[in-house]
Design a protein that fits this description.
heterodimer, A: alpha/beta, six-stranded mixed beta sheet, 19 strands, 24% strand, B: alpha+beta, four-stranded antiparallel beta sheet, DNA replication (chain A), PolD2_C (chain A), DNA polymerase delta small subunit-like isoform X2 (chain A), DNA_pol_delta/II_ssu (chain A)
Chain lengths: 441, 537
């Protein structure tokens, strides 16, 4: 809404949207740890996914029987459903730390643990079977993915795979088609306040833009179309040298606290004008295992009183004007990057969506809470926007599902390195970047 | 549509209002614009500060847009001597769909502008004497300003919190100022605090006994730190201790344990003293926190405590820790846990003055508590002192403790550490059983009260004086009996508490002093105090 210019000052009204918070499934307050192991989460995953795949199998290959691993007969074609396990030669094992002499400096870890000799195994409650054939590439799949395989057992005892059925994109709620106006959701991540590479002036410019200080009135009118801001992880970075298990001197304590204080003041400025969500990331003061729980509100004494400020879990799921958003701070994709390969990060993102699981490598190589009766990372409803934070560069893609689903995949770059934030238009799911440069020389 | 038009008309009105306001402000600024410009000049040239438009708007309560035009005027008038940083925002030619914002110095400006296409905006970002190497330095002044604004009390609405100078208004933003932010002034404490309910960090609302105790523990530590804390004002002490409470709670707990262990394991000591208080643990849990803090205020506190004991937590801390106070029936164990024994309650036991205090074991846990603080205040400790000290130790705890102790206590739960502090008080020698006069030094003082419990152990309790009076009587009778054994018991009790320095000497002293606590313990500060500690009120 633009005010008529009667005099110089024109104050825009920020647009409003409906917001729904959907993070209950990622919260673990109700869970009780009784010493359980991770097998239960795998079982829950297999159980739910298998039900789904069984329902899809008849449409895929109607003539083939579906069976368990133990029921395989040599030469008989059938479909089996189970969890994939990738046996990796280079995968680091915690026992290695104890078996050999430990050098003072850690060995350089390869970024990617793939090896040509990696092989896949399919496993269900009854047994496991080694997989052969070229239909299933070990380079693409990782441990923890549940798939249906069509093939037959060979005389060598392997299961020769002829075809693979993934779960595919989940059903999606219809996107409202009557949004007349442009409304934007701004996504950013990797502020890394407190690190040497972070430029506070850059972030201040972003805050000024979002809150409507920057630019002339036309620009402020554009900024008034921003209805929501999401900060996807790694907002602070603490000096590692201070966290060494020793007691901190009081001056060190205040040094440790500085980044949080700064982010609180900045969030205060944002929250005073627009709704903002903050998600924990790998370096934030939250728990390590996924799903990461919301950052404590006491960390943000200045911002917490606002009704626009929300501290959220990682992964984070919410609705804005009935557009479903789902996103993580990047740990799931980074872990996939270590154990599989793809041409671009968006490929990983798309795969997780087609496998219907946010973090298939959890709990194998990605820290995870041992749920007993459910797997919260299963994607049950297809989001309209699926974002991943803390990536190296900005990227986005629109994918279509077999039932007409339309999803915008977004890789959000680290703001401290690139100065780029992403804005998504709710009207048409298009996104563009907001970039800030402070090079004055 | 009717709705829409209604909205539209509202908007119009609002705009008109804004317009008129801005008109007015414009007129106003015309008159003092020059003043502002002069100020900017002095800031930039004399103080070498970077004046950004946001800083200007917050400082002079102008809208951002007004600040921008002010800077523009400034540059037109005085621009020659200063460096100007411009900000260009819009869409770049090579990426028309993406929004871009760039800072540029005046020399760079033409080139940067060429990169933008179509409609872009340029305005001044900041004015400074010279452009710093690190662009972040431009941001500093503004951030310092923002920090100051954020430090204002949460209930104050200022331009940082109210989002008032920007170009976009949002009426749906609400800010809850009731303390959601939790004024966490002392971050470290909060977490540890046991059952402190209130959000406000400092107000420890009546916690449960346990919490109190926990608090006390903290308090004790704090007491150390705050030795000067408002003496009688347990409250104050408490508050301070509260902060530290969380910090101290664990230690207190430990202390409680420590007491136990002391009791249990201090074989030699035990033997010496002849007794192993079994209950310390429980008691400690309860009382433990005899708050060293209380100690600080011990001097004052004791009386304070005594009064408080009366159950009217009027003394200071009531608010914070309702330490079981008032509940007379609580077993009060004088648990002087000096959390981490770093504090080495050297004081308490030694305080010669405590004798008198000691005589009031009941309330006078102060002596214990005040240990750290009061070691020096030994003399004061005498009876009154002791009791005080005791109280002070646990300013917070004591309150409740007092009550408790009055009621029960078999405990020698006084933590040893406390004992130290109490030590001085100990001289008072609760064991005397006669707790005599000391406790009543102040109206409500914590005094030590010693009695023999059902198991034949001498129990020294810290009780508030007021309540003590009654209690004392009983105690007196009891203690008189106990005195004889009491001394030993006391010794034992005291020993339990961790009387590092005291050791055997203390024991002996205590025994000897049991009766003479009040007056004569001064000679041997540490030991004397212990006696007073065990002295019954």
């Amino acid at each position: 809404m633009e005010s008529m210019e009667i005099d110089s000052e024109k104050v825009h009204e920020r647009k409003q949207s409906d917001y729904n918070y959907l993070d209950e499934r990622f919260e673990i307050q109700k869970e009780m740890y009784r010493g359980q192991q991770y097998s239960q989460i795998y079982f829950a995953r297999l159980h739910l996914m298998r039900t789904l795949l069984y329902s899809l199998a008849p449409t895929w290959k109607p003539h083939l029987p579906v069976g368990k691993v133990l029921g395989l007969e040599e030469g008989k074609e059938c479909i089996i459903v189970g969890t994939l396990f990738k046996h990796m030669k280079l995968k680091p094992c915690v026992l290695d730390e104890y078996s050999k002499e430990r050098s003072v400096t850690p060995l350089v870890k390869p970024h990617n643990f793939m090896h040509p000799d990696d092989n896949l195994i399919l496993e269900d409650e009854s047994g496991r079977v080694k997989l052969g054939g070229s239909a299933l590439s070990p380079a693409i799949y990782v441990t923890g993915v549940v798939v249906a395989l069509h093939g037959k057992e060979t005389c060598a005892g392997e299961f020769f795979v002829e075809d693979v059925l993934e779960a595919g994109l989940p059903p999606q709620i219809e996107r409202p088609i009557d949004l007349q106006e442009d409304k934007y959701v701004v996504l950013l991540s990797g502020l890394c306040i407190g690190s040497k590479s972070a430029n506070p002036l850059q972030f201040q410019l972003l805050v000024d833009h979002i809150t409507g200080h920057l630019g002339d009135e036309a620009e402020q009118g554009l900024a008034a179309q921003i209805v929501h801001v999401v900060i996807a992880g790694n907002s602070v970075e603490f000096p590692r040298k201070l966290i060494n298990g020793q007691n901190l001197a009081s001056k060190d304590q205040s040094t440790l606290y500085e980044p949080i204080r700064e982010i609180d003041i900045m969030l205060n400025q944002i929250a005073a004008g627009v709704s903002v969500d903050i998600m924990p990331g790998l370096n934030d003061p939250a728990n390590f295992a996924l799903p990461q729980q919301p950052l404590n509100r006491c960390l943000f004494p200045g911002s917490a009183p606002y009704n626009t400020f929300r501290s959220c879990t990682n992964p984070h799921s919410f609705d804005v004007d009935n557009i479903r958003f789902l996103g993580t701070s990047g740990q799931n994709i980074d872990d996939l990057d270590k154990y599989s390969e793809a041409k671009s990060k968006l490929d990983f993102v798309e795969r997780t969506l087609r496998w219907r699981h946010l973090a298939p490598t959890a709990p194998n190589t990605l820290g995870c809470y041992p749920f007993t009766d459910r797997d919260p990372f299963l994607i049950e409803t297809c989001p309209h926007v699926y974002f991943v934070g803390n990536q190296d560069k900005y990227d986005n893609r629109l994918i279509k599902g077999s039932e007409g689903q339309l999803v915008r995949l977004i890789c959000i770059p680290k703001f401290c390195e690139t100065g780029i934030a992403v804005a998504v238009n709710l009207k048409n799911l298009e996104c563009h970047t907001l970039s800030f440069s402070t090079q004055i020389s | 549509m009717a709705g829409k038009s209604a909205n539209a008309s509202l908007d119009e009105e609002r705009k008109k209002n804004l317009a008129t306001k801005s008109q007015k402000s414009e007129k106003m600024t015309l008159t003092h614009t020059l003043n502002v410009l002069d100020e900017i000049e002095s800031l930039v040239s004399d103080q070498l500060q970077v004046v950004s438009y946001k800083w200007l708007s917050r400082n002079f309560s102008l809208s951002s847009n007004t600040a921008k035009s002010l800077l523009k005027d400034f540059v037109e008038k005085h621009g020659k001597g200063f460096e100007v940083v411009y900000i260009v925002s819009g869409c770049l030619k090579n990426r028309p769909s993406d929004y871009s914002v760039k800072l540029a110095s005046s020399t760079q400006l033409p080139e940067v502008e060429k990169e933008f296409n179509g409609k872009y905006s340029v305005h001044i970002y900041s004015v400074q004497a010279s452009i710093p190497m690190d662009p972040a330095a431009i941001w500093n002044a503004e951030f310092v300003q923002a920090e100051e604004l954020s430090r204002q009390p949460s209930a104050t609405d200022n331009c940082l919190r109210g989002n008032r100078f920007c170009g976009i208004s949002n009426s749906f933003v609400k800010r809850n100022v009731e303390g959601t932010t939790g004024n966490v002034t002392a971050p470290r404490i909060e977490s540890v605090r046991t059952t402190v309910q209130p959000k406000s960090s400092l107000d420890f609302q009546k916690g449960t006994v346990l919490s109190n105790q926990g608090k006390r523990a903290n308090v004790s530590h704090q007491a150390k730190s705050e030795t000067n804390a408002a003496p009688a004002q347990n409250q104050s002490v408490k508050s301070s201790s509260d902060k530290e409470k969380s910090f101290h709670v664990p230690p207190n707990k430990k202390n409680g344990q420590g007491e136990k262990s002391v009791a249990g394991t201090g074989g030699s000591l035990k033997n010496m003293w002849g007794r192993v208080p079994v209950k310390t643990e429980d008691e400690s849990a309860k009382i433990e926190v005899k708050n060293p803090i209380t100690d600080h205020s011990e001097d004052q506190k004791p009386s304070h405590d005594a009064d408080n004991k009366g159950g009217s937590d009027d003394d200071n801390e009531d608010v914070n820790f309702k330490r079981a106070s008032k509940s007379e029936n609580r077993k009060r164990k004088a648990i002087f846990d000096f959390s981490d024994e770093e504090y080495e309650d050297v004081i308490s036991l030694a305080s010669p003055s405590s004798p008198k205090v000691n005589s009031r074991p009941d309330g006078e846990l102060n002596s214990e508590d005040s240990g750290p603080e009061k070691p020096d205040s030994g003399p004061e400790k005498t009876d009154a002192g002791v009791s005080r000290e005791v109280k002070s130790d646990e300013p917070e705890v004591s309150k409740e403790d007092r009550e408790k102790t009055a009621s029960i206590d078999a405990s020698t739960t006084l933590s040893m550490e406390k004992i130290q502090t109490i030590g001085s008080e100990a001289e008072v020698k609760p064991s005397k059983g006669k707790i005599t006069e000391a406790p009543s030094l102040q109206k409500r003082k914590k005094t030590l009260k010693t009695r023999i419990d059902e198991r034949g152990r001498e129990v020294t309790e810290v009780v508030w004086e007021e309540t003590e009076t009654k209690v004392k009587k009983e105690d007196d009778t009891d203690t008189s009996k106990k005195l004889n054994d009491g001394k030993n018991a006391n010794a034992v009790n005291r020993a339990q508490k961790k009387i590092p320095a005291i050791g055997n000497a203390a024991a002996t002293n205590i025994g000897g002093k049991a009766g003479s606590k009040k007056g004569g313990n001064v000679k041997d500060p540490k030991q004397g105090n212990i006696m007073s500690f065990f002295k019954k009120v």
